[in-house]
Design brief:
Elements: H1 3-11, H2 18-33, H3 41-55, H4 60-70, H5 77-80, H6 87-96, H7 101-110, H8 113-122, E1 161-166, E2 172-176, H9 188-191, H10 193-198, E3 202-209, E4 217-227, E5 234-243, H11 263-288, H12 297-328, E6 337-338, H13 339-349, H14 351-357, E7 360-364, E8 371-372, H15 376-391, E9 399-407, E10 410-416, H16 426-429, H17 444-457, E11 461-464, E12 468-474
Parallel strand pairs: 7-9
Antiparallel strand pairs: 1-2, 1-5, 3-4, 4-5, 6-8, 9-10, 10-12, 11-12
Helix pairs in contact: 1-2, 1-3, 2-3, 2-4, 2-11, 4-6, 6-8, 11-12, 12-17, 13-15, 15-17
Length: 478
């Protein structure tokens, strides 16, 4: 079905309830962003009008997620206009879009004051030749990332210095004085985990930017937290970074096969994968929920399976994002997390899936509390991916025993082999095409191969023996 046909179909939905209207809005946004309606201006106008009407009813979190999903250099200008009421929704789109001066000025005229301030900070030279609005003497510009209004710097910043800002979730959304592609989207919440969580300033902290371009190497970062003046709500950070003393060479870590991943290219690939996957999930949910009208049970079941597999693939894409962050050096070592505690958290997270499959997961507590040096969130994610990969091949009524141990400079979480994996060689289990009986879509081989690649980048490994499968992670010193 052509995009225009899909657009016409979605526009025909009744969408009586709040959830139905939010789903319709999301689907219209994704279709228009992908070029639907270009051959039928009247249809496109109807879609844009419907998007504008529903925007005020759609939760902010849904709008921000949609903006991030469709952000790109060629998002239609008319669609962008529907996101210009709030800086939180506009920021991802404005950071990625490519517009000439006339297009930028046209959008600015339609934007709210907060978004106008954001646009001024991103493109001060292109705004109708206006002089920048300076803050009152003796006052800094508003300490508020989302409501910022920045004066253009008098002389350009010296070489080796750039300015940055990030929103409340930590992703950098504004850069001045440096190549944006290498940094936009980088999560400072991960780089400065404890300080970020406590809303504390930081000064001259070293961080490495990976790659081969002019940004590669060590930079010293300084940042100050910002808050909305009216509500006191946290708005993000703003600050600067300077080239480190004796800048480090670019850091490249081989991933699951020896090929160094280039951070910028990988981020572009991740975006290109996420966009169609989100659309697939959305359309599958429409069929499963019978939003387009009654659907046979067989079609609904098939749609549910498509959604499930698309979500698994989306999780794999997120793992690639994690690999890029690991490679770039953003996820520094933590203070040491007890492995049994992390595994208990993983078991709690997987309880619904364990109950659905009828599988029992038993934690065998060791005498010593083995600890990993990886950041807690990273270690938990790797352990969960590992258990999920084996759980996918585990049949109803089986029991998985999860135990901990250590080996040299690594700690290990080990699972026994379920029946479907018994007697199979390592080469077969790591074949991306391998699926256990009853599995469909992305199977156990694909999942285990991803786990192995992530473990290698994190400084560990995946070990497969006749007795079970073990995920080894770096141990905490001391």
């Amino acid at each position: 079905m052509r995009f225009d046909d899909r657009l016409s179909t979605v526009l025909g939905l009744s969408a009586d309830g709040p959830r139905d209207r939010a789903v319709q809005w999301r689907q219209l946004v994704e279709l228009v962003a992908r070029g639907a309606g270009t051959s039928d201006p009247a249809l496109l106008t109807r879609a844009l009008e419907r998007i504008a009407i529903l925007s005020s009813e759609v939760p902010d979190a849904v709008r921000v997620a949609a903006a991030r999903a469709v952000a790109g250099p060629f998002v239609p200008r008319a669609l962008l206009a529907s996101f210009l009421d709030r800086s939180e929704t506009a920021a991802p789109l404005l950071a990625a879009v490519q517009l000439d001066d006339a297009g930028w000025a046209e959008l600015r005229a339609k934007a709210s004051p907060s978004v106008q301030a954001l646009m001024d900070s991103q493109r001060p030279a292109a705004l109708e030749g206006r002089a920048p609005e300076l803050p009152p003497p003796g006052r800094l510009p508003a300490n508020d990332v989302a409501e910022r209004a920045r004066a253009a710097p008098a002389p350009a910043d010296p070489p080796g210095l750039f300015r940055w800002e990030c929103g409340p979730t930590g992703e950098i959304d504004w850069i001045e004085g440096a190549a944006r592609a290498a940094l936009i989207g980088r999560s400072l919440a991960e780089d400065f985990g404890q300080r970020f969580a406590a809303r504390l300033p930081f000064n001259d902290e070293p961080l490495v930017v990976a790659g081969e371009g002019e940004m590669a190497g060590e930079w010293r970062w300084s940042g100050t937290p910002a808050f909305f003046p009216d509500t006191g709500r946290f708005a993000g950070y703003h600050g600067s970074a300077r080239r480190g003393e004796g800048a480090l060479a670019a850091v490249e870590t081989p991933f699951a096969g020896g090929t160094a991943l280039q951070g910028d290219r990988l981020r572009e690939l991740i975006h290109e994968l996420r966009t169609p996957l989100n659309a697939i999930i959305g359309f599958g949910e429409i069929i499963e929920g019978q939003i387009l009208g009654p659907a046979h049970r067989a079609y609904r079941d098939r749609a549910a399976e498509i959604v499930r597999q698309a979500r698994r693939l989306l999780a794999a894409v997120d793992d690639l994002d994690l690999a890029a962050k690991l490679q770039s050096g953003r996820l520094r070592n933590g203070e040491g997390s007890p492995l049994p505690e992390l595994l208990a958290e993983v078991a709690d997270r997987l309880e619904p899936e364990l109950a659905r499959k009828g599988v029992r997961l038993t934690l065998v507590q060791p005498g010593a509390a083995y600890r990993t040096s990886l950041q807690r969130d990273l270690a938990t994610r790797l352990l969960q991916r590992f258990v999920e990969a084996v759980l996918g091949a585990t049949g109803a009524g089986e029991e998985l025993g999860l135990r901990t141990g250590s080996q040299g400079h690594l700690v290990a979480a080990t699972l026994n082999r379920p029946a479907a994996l018994g007697g199979r060689a390592e080469q077969e289990l790591l074949d991306p095409s391998f699926s256990a009986p009853g599995e469909s879509g992305l199977g156990t081989g694909f999942a285990l191969r991803l786990v192995r690649g992530l473990a290698v980048v994190a400084g560990g490994r995946l070990e497969i023996t006749a007795g079970g499968l073990s995920l080894h992670l770096p141990t905490a010193s001391g």
